[in-house]
Amino acid sequence: MNLAAIIRHYLQHYQPLHDHELMWFRNQSSLEEALRIAAEAQDDRGHRYSHQRRIKTHAIREATKRLAEAHDEIQRCPTFHELWNVVGSLLEPIPGIGELYIYDTALRLGAHLGLNPEKIYLHAGTRTGARKLGLLSPRDTRLWLESKELPAPLRDLPPPDVENLLCIYKDRL
To answer: Can you give the residue range of the structural domain that contains 131?
Structure first.
């Protein structure tokens, strides 16, 4: 599959699901509720997202507690980047909580708060995809990419969709 075909496939099969997920978080009745379900990695059916099923219950409980305690700090975040930093500083010390969970949690909370990523945040899956596209060297440990660093066809997608695409298609790029 070439990059154009991957983008078309993503837009047809995955973007609608991604948009639905973010809309569901955007429409939560309160930040408290958004914090709880984002921390528990719950979808709109009350199930844990499949790519976060391996996270231990005690780690989820601790993440939920820390995020709830940081409610006011989270609510004051003026940008997605600030939110991602706050969520990361709160959750990174918890054993079993990794980069993907931190990004996903910040993305879901950002949807509720109206804060959208302006960069492409990297975790294991997106890093693999970025390396396969030649955007990162094997030793590059950056935490994000700027849209201007992307190949032209990807620059038309919003950063959260680029993150999602790089992760989903990491083995086909």
So the answer is: 3-168
Residue 33 lies in a domain: yes
pTM value surpassing 0.90: yes
Q: Which residues of the chain have pLDDT under 50?
A: none
Residue type, 11: L
What is the tally of structural domains in the chain? 1
In a domain, 173, yes or no: no
- Is the distance from CB of 129 to CB of 162 less than 8 angstroms? no
pLDDT score for 162? 98
pLDDT 10s digits, 113-159: 999 999 999 999 999 999 999 999 999 999 999 999 999 999 999 99
Strands (DSSP E) contained in the chain are 119-121, 144-146
To which residue do tokens 């990297």 refer? 122
pLDDT of residue 1: 78
Nearest partner of 144 among 172, 167, 164, 163, judged by Cα:
163
